[in-house]
Amino acid sequence: MACLPGPFLCGALIGFAWLSGLAVEVKVPTEPLSTPVGHTAELTCSYSTSVGDNFALEWSFVQPGKPISSSRPILYYTSGQLYPTGSKAERASLLQNPPTGGVATLKLADVRSSDTGTYLCQVNNPPDFYTNGLGLINLTVLVPPSRPVCSQSGQIVVGGSAALGCSSAEGAPKPVYNWVHLGSSPTPAPGSMVQDEVSGQLILTNLSMTSSGTYRCVATNQMGSASCELTLDVTNPSKGRVAGTLVGVLLGILLLSVAVFCLLRFHKDRKRKPKETYGGNDLREDAVAPGISEQTSLRADASPGLLERSPSASTVTTTKSRLPMSV
Question: What phi and psi values does residue 243 have, to the nearest 5 degrees?
Answer without folding.
Answer: -65, -40
